Amino acid sequence: MDDIVVGPLDLAARVDDALTVQALAFGLTEEEIAVRRHIVLRHLAARGSRALGATTGSGRLVGFVYGMPNDRGHWWSGVVEPYLRATGSDGWLDNSFVITELHVHPDFQKRGIGRSLITTITDSAAEPRSILSAIDTESPARALYRKLGYRDLARPVHFPSAPSPYVVMGAPLPLLGEGADDRG
Q1: Are 76 and 133 within 8 A, CB to CB?
Q2: Residue 23: is it exposed, middle or buried by C-beta count within 10 angstroms (0-12/13-18/19+)?
Q3: What is the spatial order of strands in the sheet that 50-55 belongs to?
Q4: Cis amide prior to 156 (ω within 30 degrees)
Q5: What is the pTM of this model?
Q6: How do residues 141-159 score in pLDDT, each as one tens digit?
């Protein structure tokens, strides 16, 4: 990972830096960034939420992850629960750590930063498993999640106002180690 350091991130203080990374990685418009800013700040108030950042030696944020223990009362859980119930997987919503967002700047992808971010944040989770949602397409992100032990729990999942279907994935913790991989 060259001179990239993964460590705790004050995401509230660096929300604009993080959303710049997310916009580049995910192709967001200015309007979508403004909406997500409020969502991120609201998530940070949730019990047990925490964030990590990947920064260069000069302090530039080039990747981030944040998540929290799942709460069935949260909006995301309410959307995915019927899909998980249909596959007999709704128990994954209990006692799980949710990866809410994970993004790496496109210029810094394929260096193991995403892997380091997700494994570091889940290594400190008290929950025995992790869940996340990803766009339901074969992508480098989905390949990384599979290498880490995530498997598809429900698909296609349709979020309101999202143009593409998603997949909900889950993995037991700890995630699979470096020996099971290509670099993500």
Answers
A1: yes
A2: middle
A3: 5-8, 50-55, 61-69, 96-104, 129-135, 166-172, 151-157
A4: yes
A5: 0.93
A6: 999 999 999 999 999 999 9
